[in-house]
Amino acid sequence: MPAAIERPRRKDQGRVAPHAGLGNPAGFGKALPLRESETGMDRVRSQRERAQMGSANRLKLGLFGANCSSGRAVTMVPERWSGNWRDCLALAKMADEAGIEFMLPIGRWKGYGGATDYQGETLETVTWAAGLLAGTKRLVVFGTVHAPLIAPLIAAKEFVTADHIGEGRFGLNLVCGWNEGEFEMFGANLRDHETRYDYAQEWLDVVKRAWSAREDSESDFDFTGRYFTLRQVRAKPKPYGGSRPLIMNAGASPTGQAFAIRNCDALFSHISYGMSLDETALYVTRLRDMAQQQGRDIDIYTVGVVTCRPSAKEAEDYWRHAIVDHADWGAVDNILAMRDITPENHSPDEFRRLRNHQANGMGGLPMVGDPDMVTAQLARLADAGLTGIAVSFVNYLDELPYFCAEVLPRLARLGLRDPQ
Length: 420
Description:
This protein is α/β, with parallel strands linked by helices and 420 residues long. The protein has one domain: Luciferase-like domain (TIM Barrel, Alpha-Beta Barrel). 39% of the residues lie in helices and 14% in strands. It is built from 13 helices and 11 strands. The strands form 2 sheets. It has an 8-stranded parallel barrel with strand order 1-2-3-4-7-8-9-11, surrounded by 8 helices. Helix 4 links the parallel strand 3 (140-146) and strand 4. Helix 2 (85-98) runs parallel beside helix 13, helix 6 (193-212) packs parallel to helix 7 and helix 12 packs across helix 13 (396-413). The chain is globular and about 65 Å long. The protein starts with 46 loop residues before the first helix and ends in a 7-residue tail after the last helix. The model is unreliable at 1-42 (pLDDT under 50).
């Protein structure tokens, strides 16, 4: 077992209950003080509290992709994730009890084919979030929304509804889209890359304006832009608690990152396998410096795929069984072809690498090993300055209990999480 790394624990480290002032029957973490609300609401939530997801943990943890059949593992093993409502709700309650901060869905409208029709059955993300918020107490649940596929005022109302159901625990993951086949289903145009973000900017401006205007008839507003011309807009109620939902984006291009820094509280970014701690830290620092130059503060998250077993050999054996020997290679090749990655335009070694990378959780950072090894990888991400990570499993319900029992206490001993 690697030597423990001692880090000083902050006095306020731990989970912050979002129901402060309404009682905290679970006794979970330190409640924020109740502040008087000018709108008459029982609880005022600060924007910083929203960004922290009600948690003072140094490394925040989430679950990614559970609203889709197979989750993020492109595998044919029979125990692969169902994505059905019953399992999603059970997972959310399990995560809530364990102190996991958030659940992040995938905005998917059309499966990728293959033997399993990978991600062919998916639950729409905002209604999914509303249901999970109603069944949990502390968990932040995101909706992943394609801006070009829904009118901004309808979206703003849906977000507010979910936010009230969860008493301030709804988050928005805004995406611009890339899958032309999905856009064709809706009769929508997939704009060129730069224009997608121009459209998303105007769309989000409308949503934020609807959220922020006063709740009286004199607060009606007009909006005139390149894509939207709106008259006498009235939007009530406003988001819960006097602040807006947490907003994140996963822009990877310079344009996408600039959009996230300009508009969002959090940026999801893929950390490449093999990047050193120093390289990752420099990358995170560069993004934060870009935000500070614009007078903004942004949290940086990444995504990972966990295979954790009592021994490294057990973990590696299962990973090979599920992700290599029983990968849905037909679905993998369909996904790669959609991104113009084929044997014809890549060398054999590079195409093989990309295929394996795609089968392993759609490109997430692989974390394969025993609890000490997985903990060490997570600690390195925290040391590099990342705020948190959203992870997936082959079967979330089967594997999360072991992760929580073995990895979370190790993270707590390193000062990265509050002991449960």
